[in-house]
Amino acid sequence: MTVSDQVKALIHNQSFVNGEWVNALSGKTFSVINPANNELITEVPEQTQEDTSAAIAAAEAALPAWKELTAKSRSLILKRWAQLVNENLEALATILTLEQGKALVESRAEVASSANYIEWFANEAIRINGDTLPRSANGNFEYMQKLPIGVVAAITPWNFPNSMIARKVAPALAAGCTVVIKPAEDTPLSALALTHLAADAGVPAGVINVITASTGAEVGLELCKNPTVKKLSFTGSTAVGKILLEQCASTVKKLSLELGGNAPFIVFEDADLDAAVQGAIAIKFYNSGQTCICANRLLVQESIHDEFLEKYNAAINQMVQGHGLEEGVSHGPLINEKAITKVQSLVEATIKQGATVYRGGKVLPELGSNFFQFTILSDLAKDMDIFSSEIFGPVAAVYKFRDESEAVAMANDTPYGLASYLYTKDTGRIFRVSEALEYGMVGVNTPKFVSETVPFGGVKESGIGREGSVHGIDEFLEMHYVCISA
Ligand SMILES: NC(=O)c1ccc[n+]([C@@H]2O[C@H](COP(=O)([O-])OP(=O)(O)OC[C@H]3O[C@@H](n4cnc5c(N)ncnc54)[C@H](O)[C@@H]3O)[C@@H](O)[C@H]2O)c1
Ligand SMILES: O=C[C@H](O)CS(=O)(=O)O
Questions:
Q1: pLDDT for res 160
Q2: Burial category of 28 from C-beta neighbours within 10 Å (exposed 0-12, middle 13-18, buried 19 and up)
Q3: Whether the CB of 171 sits within 6 Å of ligand 1
Q4: Over 213-258, what HEC string results?
């Protein structure tokens, strides 16, 4: 089968409930648009609370048989799923770029990452061990099992529409849970394509269900309020995360929240400057700046600030903006008009507050309505709105600092705490600053640290819980203690 045949086979205009491709009960649909050219890709079901309730019921009905499978059986099905994802990598990457816009090279990396998460949790499935405990009274036999929490709801964002599904569904299934997924309205096709391959891999009907809707509120409310759902795993903005946290209180659901970020990227004067420039290019402009771990504030020590800007500007000139499927394109559009408006307004407001536009600062209509220039803003101050805003666009906000204590204070001056980065060759400074940074994750002299082996997550208002690593599966398990008295 050619890649284009695979793409055609994997693009769905229906959602997936109880092992069947279905329309919305209302029959209504909404459009999925290619952000590079605003062309229609397909229509998908406009589903509601009623559709969601049916999907939750399907997940509940499938739960007993799925959790009763041996861990090895679940593991083998997940391994087959990972294999099919790899075999369809190019098609999945093409679908990802079509609906999200990112350059194909990034889409390929994201799909490969999904296969790695699925394979990782296939292996974790057979390592869900409990404890036998020292008897607390004569004649007792005491033990703790880790058991699947039950029906899981997964609500995912548009910026990594493939890997955010794998990072939630793989550990949930490995743990013996069943899932109802609500993907982002801009990018539902990747979730549907992954689910197609999961079914081909042998995941039984009702174990994975996908609900599509043009807004998240109604479906999300059902996922939060329905008592059958025992766990909600959310990746998205902090604002929506707070809504879900409140809505889940009524049923005391177990929650994982992977939320927004405001990553500092600290460059000390003793850093390898060329390495710092390349790192700042990679983690500022990845996905055209639309990732939760993007360098949101570039903090550069004043003695090297001007040299850094010159080198950084020269490196930006090596990047190519365009339609993600085109050969040679390294960076695609923003996801939609709302995103462009948000970035444009933030840049204009920052200029009004006194910023200098070192380069860029405008939209790129010649490429398409959702393209924004690679931009550097300098002469920034921490009392400007941009300092506390998640930019989510190809805009580098560069700030000066005098010394280590000011750098740490600036870095921590935010309610967010997801990713952070620092560049220095001073070993003492590496340990001092890494420990002082109030973030879930710290990259030292590298921005590339995310993989399936890493406990990915944040502190403060960047979230609750971790995804990936040996810890990720615990989010979908409950401890069950038994005391047997002879
Ligand atoms: N921490 C992480 O791992 C991580 C990863 C990716 C994105 N993000 C964050 O996500 C944000 C960008 O993604 P986004 O724009 O899709 O976020 P978003 O919060 O607007 O949407 C995320 C998901 O939530 C749904 N949603 C929206 N309102 C809802 C509601 N009231 N109830 C239930 N669901 C609702 C959306 O339909 C979508 O599926 C950024 O803040 C980014 O930092 C975080
Ligand atoms: O946007 C945030 C994603 O979680 C980034 S990554 O895929 O985990 O690197």
A1: 98
A2: middle
A3: no
A4: CCCCHHHHHHHHHCCCEEEEEEECCHHHHHHHHHHCHHHCCEEEEE
State how far the Cα of 294 lies from the Cα of 420, in Å rounded to an integer: 9
For residue 469, report the distance from its CA to the centre of ligand 2, in Å. 14
Residue type, 129: N
Q: Which of 164, 288, 441 to mutate to test the pocket of ligand 2 (most atoms within 8 A of CB)?
A: 164
For a ligand 2 pocket test, name from 259, 335, 456 the mutation site with the most ligand atoms within 8 angstroms of its C-beta. Answer: 456
Q: What is the pLDDT of residue 28?
A: 98
Three-state secondary-structure class, residue 297: strand
pLDDT at site 271: 98
**Cα 156 to Cα 191: distance, rounded to the nearest angstrom:** 9
Which entry of 106, 185, 222, 258 is annotated as an active-site residue?
A: 258
Can you give the pLDDT at residue 2?
86
SS3 410: helix
Give the model's pLDDT for residue 3: 83
Q: What is the ipTM, given to two decimal places?
A: 0.95
Q: For the whole model, what pTM was predicted? A: 0.98
Q: What is the CA angle 202-208-209, rounded to 5?
A: 135
pLDDT lower than 50: segments of the chain: none
CA 244 to ligand 1 center in whole angstroms:
11
Q: Is 292 in the pocket of ligand 2 (CB under 6 A)?
A: yes
Pocket test for ligand 1, best of 47, 212, 240 (most atoms within 8 A of CB): 240
The residues facing 209 across adjacent strands are 180
CA distance 33 to 338: 14
Phi-psi category of 16—alpha, beta or left, where left has phi over 0 and alpha has psi -120 to 50? beta
C-alpha to C-alpha distance for 231 and 106, rounded to whole angstroms = 30
DSSP state of 469: T
pLDDT at residue 352 in the model: 98
* Per-residue pLDDT, 177: 99
Q: Rounded to the nearest whole angstrom, what is the distance from the C-alpha of residue 452 to the centroid of ligand 2?
A: 11
Q: Return the C-alpha torsion angle 115, 116, 120, 123, nearest 10.
A: 60
The residue type at 308: F
Is 258 marked active-site? yes
- The reply to whether ligand 1 has any atom less than 6 angstroms from the CB of 465 is no
CA distances from 86 to 9, 97, 118, 228, 410 (A): 16, 17, 11, 33, 42
- Whether ligand 1 lies within 6 angstroms of the CB of 220 is answered as yes
Residue labelled with tokens 């002082």 = 436
Task: Tell me the domains of the chain and their CATH numbers.
Answer: 5-259+462-485 (3.40.605.10), 264-444 (3.40.309.10)
Q: Looking at the CA of 236, which ligand is closest?
A: 1
